[in-house]
Amino acid sequence: MGGAGYVLAFAVVFAAVLFGTGAAAKYLRARAILDRPNERSSHAAPTPRGGGIAVSAVLISAFAAIGFVTAERPTASAALLIGALVLAAVSWIDDLRGLPPWLRLAVQVAAATSALPALPLSGLVFQGLLPPLADHAAAVLLWVWFVNLFNFMDGIDGIAGVEAATNGFGLFLIALLFPAAGALPGFALYALTIAAAALGFLWWNWEPAKVFLGDVGSVPLGFLLGFLLLSLAAAGLWPAALILPLYYLADSGVTLMRRIAAGEKIWQAHAGHFYQRAARRIGSHAATVRAIAFANLGLMGLALLACVGFEAAALVSAAAVTALLLAYLAGGLKP
Question: Residues 6 or more apart from 122 whose CB is under 8 A from it?
Fold first, then answer.
């Protein structure tokens, strides 16, 4: 596809999410489907929750169109789309009235397991380091973990949109510049639609947010983005697949270990992530997210560096960038 085709695809997805989210916000507010502030909240006013229904609808439709044109294995591609659709439906119900954690987790595991054959080549994410069955099991666990951490990290205005946009653009650039990433047909288009949808939603979710993503948006978005990252790893570019979402992995991972050590119930909502503490300390969601976006741009560059043969240097540098960001968010560094 030429440059004009990519621009058109980006514009269509961006516009669809932009206007779709606006319509969803009006619908949600009219029916009082609101996220009301509590002691764990990072917002002060009731805000429509579930605006991500437009993101999920557009993304699933876009992935279906791309898959129809490019997929070499239609059945596997259909399994990915069905998994995303089921996750969106279950998450919408969870947004409206709540579902048990075990049920949500079971659906996520089933969706990831069913969609695993959609990964490119042999689908072996760990490049032969594990036996095939163990590799597949580990990939499902990583995928489900990523879906949940993406959901948990959506706790202040703008953060999910910035993370998905920078990861999407990073994957798009890798697909354009490095042929190995093209093991998944349509990879560049898939990545670009993630970025476009994230930016369309970000228009409404930047501080002060007029609508929240909700589980109906964050869970399918994390599922589809996780699929692209696993696809990149399966194509042999695993350092880049690790570097792009490294801030999210680090913030969620360190916070999880800290909560386990404190004996907290890790499935319950909380406000202890680095970004949440930073937003309270700084007094601005936007300033916090701008710092994360700046670091993510550095991670994008390092992911590209890893693709040209400097894997060790890129990984070490990415770890340093992420550590500095966490230190800043924790209040240990001054801007």
Answer: 132, 234
